[in-house]
Amino acid sequence: MTATKLPADCETKDDVRAEIDRIDHALIELFAERHAYVTRMAEIKTDPHEAYVPARIEAIVAKVRERALALDLDEDQAELLWRTLIDWNINYEKGIITARTRKK
């Protein structure tokens, strides 16, 4: 993703908003791509309890914090965002797995 204008080159609120909109568009595409993999994972797993793996969660969060720090992003905010995303994914996976296993 290449910025049309770097933050320092934005001279108006409209310039900044246009860049934020561009980034939001890219983010939603990435979230949709990630969601497809989460859905596939839920199709592969056989037990709803497999959706919650504390060691995997902590490993992901540690990587996110490390990447955020390297990018000069508040690592606490990045962690909060990822934990929210992970919690949502866990509940989503559990729902798919539970629905599938009840049909059998």
From TrEMBL:
In Pfam terms, one family for this protein is CM_2
Under the heading InterPro entries, the entry gives: Chorismate_II_sf (IPR036263), Chorismate_mutase-related (IPR051331), CM_dom_sf (IPR036979), CM_II_prokaryot (IPR002701)
Q: What is the lineage of its organism?
A: Bacteria, Pseudomonadati, Pseudomonadota, Alphaproteobacteria, Hyphomicrobiales
What is one process in the GO biological process aspect for this record? Answer: salicylic acid biosynthetic process
Domain annotation Chorismate mutase: ranges: 7-97
- UniProt cross-references to PANTHER family, sorted A to Z: CHORISMATE MUTASE (PTHR38041:SF1)
Q: Under what name is this protein listed?
A: chorismate mutase
Keyword annotations for this protein, in alphabetical order, are: Isomerase, Lyase, Pyruvate
Listed EC numbers: 5.4.99.5
Query: Has the keyword DNA damage been applied to this entry?
Result: no
Q: What class of enzyme is it?
A: isomerase
* GO molecular function list: chorismate mutase activity; lyase activity
